[in-house]
Amino acid sequence: MFHAMSHYQYPPLSPGSDSIRLLRLMPDKDEKAPIQCELFEYSLQESRNETHLYEALSYVWGSPETPESISIDKHNLPVTANLHAALSRLRDCSFERIIWADFVCINQEDKKDEKERQIQSMAKIYGKANRVIVYLGEGTRASNQALENIRVAAEDESTNPSISEKSRKAILKLLERP
């Protein structure tokens, strides 16, 4: 039934506006359940706050060779396996999340100026997000160990005297990047 849905058709964004699309990732207690989402238009000018209540997702698109499907407003949208995995990891069991993910929130089939305008606004979109989530892919033993080593190295030097103060400060600066 999931794959029998019609293909999602993007409505155009309001012309001449500072609008973007945001993805409402619906909760599900079943980790294996199909990913259900809604897309809605959002104006970056609506709030006077410096940041907005959405999370921007940064990830590697990966190969389009073996697409996965998500449901947007009860319509099928093929996405890369990496984006599908990221959304699966980000989906909460009880609460919806509001996410900006370029592959979904920018109409990739747009042949006019909307796609170009959205791409040119990406720095602003990431900068206005409440936070940016970086999805590095599924963990492996080696990558999990590398992240743990970075975490330990960034701790107080008294707990890890083998790391120089200069290295510790450099790691902290890396982890504090906006």
Description:
With 178 residues, this protein is of the alpha/beta class. It has two domains: 2-135, no CATH class; 141-175, no CATH class. 30% of the residues lie in helices and 25% in strands. It has six helices and seven strands. It has helices at residues 81-90, 102-105, 114-120, 122-128, 141-154, 165-175; strands at 19-25, 36-43, 52-59, 68-72, 75-79, 97-100, 129-135. Strands 5-4-2-1-6-3-7 form a seven-stranded mixed β-sheet. Strand 4 and strand 5 form a beta hairpin. The longest helix is centred in the C-terminal third of the chain and has 14 residues, at 141-154. It is globular. It starts with 18 loop residues before the first strand and ends with a helix. 16% of the residues are buried.
Overview features:
178 residues, alpha/beta, 2 domains, seven-stranded mixed β-sheet, 6 helices, 25% strand, globular
Rounded Rg: 19 Å
Number of spatially distinct domains: 2
If you average the pLDDT, what whole number results? 85
Alpha-beta content class: alpha/beta
H-E order? EEEEEHEHHHEHH
Strand content: 15-25%
Low-confidence region ranges: none
Specify the biggest β-sheet.
7 strands, mixed
- Helix content estimate: 25-40%
Please work out how many helical segments DSSP would assign. 6
In the sheet with the most strands, the strands line up as: 5-4-2-1-6-3-7
How far apart the termini lie comes to: 42 Å
Shape: globular
Q: Count of DSSP E strands?
A: 7
Pfam family, one: HET
Organism: Hyaloscypha variabilis (strain UAMH 11265 / GT02V1 / F)
Protein name: Heterokaryon incompatibility domain-containing protein
InterPro entries: HET, HetReg/Transcr_Mod
